[in-house]
Design brief:
Shape: globular
CATH superfamily: Vaccinia Virus protein VP39
Radius of gyration: 14 Å
Number of helices: 3
CATH class: Alpha Beta
Mean pLDDT: 89
Structural class: alpha/beta
Strand order of the largest sheet: 3-4-5-9-6
CATH topology: Rossmann fold
Largest sheet: 5 strands, mixed
Strand content: 15-25%
Distance between the termini: 34 Å
């Protein structure tokens, strides 16, 4: 559950808007969606909750819109660690600059803050600011 000011969301699965994803996909050419469902997957290859992306080895160029609850730190840690193994991971996350996971992991990547609030699929406006965090393979230049 998220709380920002007086706003709360009981959901932690915010489906990525298709047009937003398409723009990033044109830049990165994703091969794997690391946390998805069959209904909201953005790539042909994906890990569902049953496959548990946290327990899998990631390959290629990965898209990650993680669950926005307490486990988000685990997902950001995994994304960073996979980048150190040679994988590019692009993450859509709430811009929670005051959290431990943000300082421990997000700040190690390239950060692109989004202007305004993102409208997720289904027309739900995010009650929080968002950012795209890009983890590139160790030694790869940030573009």
């Amino acid at each position: 559950m998220f709380t920002q000011g007086m706003r709360t969301s009981a959901r932690d699965d915010w489906e990525t808007p298709s047009n937003f994803f398409a723009d990033l996909n044109a830049e990165f050419h994703f091969t794997l969606d690391v946390c998805a469902t069959a209904k909201n997957k953005k790539c042909r290859n994906f890990f569902s909750r049953m496959k548990n992306g946290l327990a899998q080895q990631w390959r290629g160029t990965c898209w990650m819109n993680p669950p926005y609850g307490r486990a988000i730190g685990n997902w950001m840690k995994k994304a960073y660690e996979e980048s150190q193994r040679g994988v590019t991971v692009v993450c859509l996350v709430p811009a929670r600059t005051d959290t431990a996971w943000w300082h421990d992991y997000a700040m190690k990547g390239e950060i692109r803050f989004l202007r305004g609030r993102l409208y997720f699929s289904g027309g739900r406006r995010a009650p929080f600011p968002s950012a795209v965090v890009i983890f590139r393979p160790k030694g790869a230049p940030n573009v």
